[in-house]
Design a protein that fits this description.
Residues 371-478 form the PH domain. By secondary structure, this protein is α+β, with helices and mostly antiparallel strands. The protein has three domains: 2-146, Roll (SH3 type barrels); 155-343, Dbl Homology Domain, Chain A; 365-493, PH-domain like. Helices cover 51% and strands 15% of the residues. The chain is built from 21 helices and 14 strands. The protein has a seven-stranded antiparallel sheet with strand order 9-8-7-6-14-13-10. The protein has a five-stranded antiparallel sheet with strand order 4-3-2-1-5. Strands 11-12 form a two-stranded antiparallel ribbon. A hairpin with a 2-residue loop joins strand 3 (95-100) and strand 4. Helix 7 (152-188) runs antiparallel to helix 9. The longest helix has 37 residues, at 152-188. The chain starts with a helix and ends with a helix.
Length: 564
């Protein structure tokens, strides 16, 4: 704040004019940013209370987008990760007004980070600053903030390394407090908690605690206390990149933990018990659900910290390649966690879809599958009958289910069979005479079992639909291979719970409502282009043809006897 006052005082002074004023203000902004150069892009923007004042003083402030922002309103500003946004108004802490080219609008402040230097890239300006002869006061301030005897970029790297080590030690302390302060005490009270309840509330946080202690030991070995900027910690992330996947289970369980915890907190004895645990462990005044959110935030913060570290690591540094690879690895971990979360959210929808299918036979879809790859209507011919049948096909990982539409209620489906995609090969069939079925075909593809005892001919209405199906079959194989490599699978508990929830939505003895269950399911998947923000009723109205308005009542209303 004092530095901010100093800047404003100099900027408004009448004797400072032209380039001299610009140089002084720019140099002191660098001093100011050096003071707040913690490698946490999310919080850095919020830790600048003087930002609105800088903008009002006429300074041009730029921010860099960390994530894509998809607009949900005409007043919002959309952008892609990496875009540079001019911040026009930052008086609101959560939503800022910005400009990109000719577009303006609101955007969330947490989606961006402020540029270290607003006028030019940090590397160029710091090099320029070292070459120029600044005043004694400025040089003294620069030395105070960046440290004696170190070039600016190396000092920046020191700051990032120290920040990583500091936050890692704090995180270990945090996990220890949860495991010893809460879980240990809860296990003593078998009259209040079951082991299943504790597993739901705390997830696998004890496993995370054991891993993080091992990870911190590796970081400490690579940390150079005398010269932190020489530390080579990139390899630590690379050595443990597969171990970080344990966060997937915790993140997926976290919503269930919040639900379970909120139920318990409605009873006073649990409120008092958790508060006693916190006080006994001498933890800060935050509720338990706040403490349990930390692992979710931590796994998201690693890519941000590594991005900052890479920015201030010279390409000639021995750690550069490892940090670059570590950044990509941790991004992949975050992407994998997000993908698994999406898959687990989908299993309830798949179970509900299955419960809406009439005459279902055999095992549940969830027994082998957890993701809908593609769906659509195709004409099916199978040997030996070779009879043409119009069917609705649903391609999941490992299997494809096909159903028949009801003649009158077109939104109702009847189960007709399935194909095991693990033992099928897909063959692109050219237009013309087909040898196996001895018929002329168009836009066709063939599914043949590896044993050769099962052959299905599928025909699409248009060439584009056929190509989309061929891509979908390739996507299904890639998905199966990826799941094998990453070890993704559903637990029996997850499968049973999903089917149980689906049965509750269709109680026994009650007729099923006339709905569009598979349309509702498809609209929530990733392949349709319809906007999911629209209410479902509105979406269906858009998809149906408009009826011609009748003039009968209009004409009746014009007659005099009916006017009164």
């Amino acid at each position: 704040i004092e530095l901010h006052k100093f800047i404003c005082k100099d900027a408004q002074h009448s004797t400072l004019k032209g380039r001299h004023m610009e140089t002084v203000v720019r140099k002191k902004r660098v001093l100011l940013r050096g003071r707040f150069s913690t490698p946490c892009p999310q919080t850095r923007a919020l830790s600048l209370p003087f930002l609105p004042q800088l903008i009002s003083d006429g300074s041009v402030v730029y921010a860099e987008a960390l994530w894509d922002h998809v607009t949900m309103d005409d007043q919002e500003l959309g952008f892609k990760a990496g875009d540079v946004i001019e911040v026009v108004d930052a008086t609101n802490k959560e939503w800022w007004w910005g400009r990109i080219m000719d577009s303006e609008g609101w955007f969330p402040a947490s989606f961006v980070r402020l540029r270290v230097n607003q006028d030019e890239p940090i590397e160029e300006y710091l090099a320029h600053l070292e070459e120029t002869h600044a005043g004694e006061e400025d040089q003294a301030g620069l030395g105070l903030l960046l440290g004696p005897g170190l070039p600016c970029k190396e000092q920046m790297r020191t700051n990032v390394i120290n920040e990583i080590m500091s936050t890692e030690r704090d995180y270990i302390k945090h996990l220890k407090d949860i495991c010893e302060g809460y879980i240990k005490q809860c296990r003593k009270r078998t009259d209040m908690f079951t082991e299943e309840q504790l597993r739901t509330i705390f997830g696998n946080i004890e496993e995370i605690y054991r891993f993080q202690r091992k990870f911190l030991k590796g970081l400490e070995k690579k940390f150079n206390k005398e010269q932190p900027h020489l530390s080579e910690i990139g390899c630590c992330f690379l050595d443990h990149q597969t171990d970080f996947q344990i966060y997937s289970e915790y993140c997926n369980n976290h919503p269930n933990a919040c639900v379970q915890l909120s139920k318990l907190m409605k009873v006073n004895k649990y409120v008092f018990f958790f508060e006693a645990c916190r006080l006994l462990q001498k933890m800060i005044d935050i509720s338990l659900d706040g403490f349990l959110l930390t692992p979710v935030q931590k796994i998201c913060k690693y890519p941000l910290q590594l991005a900052e570290l890479l920015k201030y690591t010279n390409p000639q540094h021995r750690d550069y390649k490892d940090v670059e690879a570590a950044l990509n690895a941790m991004k992949n971990v975050a992407r994998l966690i997000n993908e698994r979360k999406r898959r687990l959210e989908n299993i309830d929808k798949i179970a509900q879809w299955q419960s809406s299918i009439e005459d279902w036979e055999g095992e549940d879809v969830l027994s082998r599958s957890s993701d809908l790859i593609f769906s659509g209507e195709l004409t099916k011919l199978s040997q030996p009958q070779a009879k043409s049948q119009q069917r609705m096909f649903f391609l999941f990982d490992h299997q494809m289910v096909y159903c028949k539409k009801d003649l009158l209620r077109r939104d109702m489906l009847y189960y007709k069979g399935r194909m095991d995609m693990d033992h099928m090969e897909v063959i692109d069939v050219e237009d013309g005479k087909e040898k196996d079925f001895n018929i002329s075909v168009k836009n066709a593809l063939k599914l043949r079992s590896l044993a050769g005892d099962e052959v299905h001919l599928l025909c699409a209405k248009k060439p584009e639909q056929k190509q989309r199906w061929l891509r979908a079959f390739a996507d299904e194989r890639r998905q199966v291979q990826h799941d094998r490599e990453t070890g993704f699978s559903l637990t029996e508990v997850q499968k049973k719970q999903a089917m149980l929830n689906a049965c509750k939505s269709h109680p026994a003895g009650k007729p099923k409502a006339v709905t569009r269950p598979y349309y509702d399911f498809l609209l929530r998947q990733k392949h349709p282009s319809l906007p999911t923000a629209l209410p479902q009723q509105q979406v269906f109205m858009l998809a149906e043809p408009k009826r011609k308005t009748s003039t009968f009542w209009h004409n009746i209303g014009r007659l005099t006897p009916f006017k009164k």
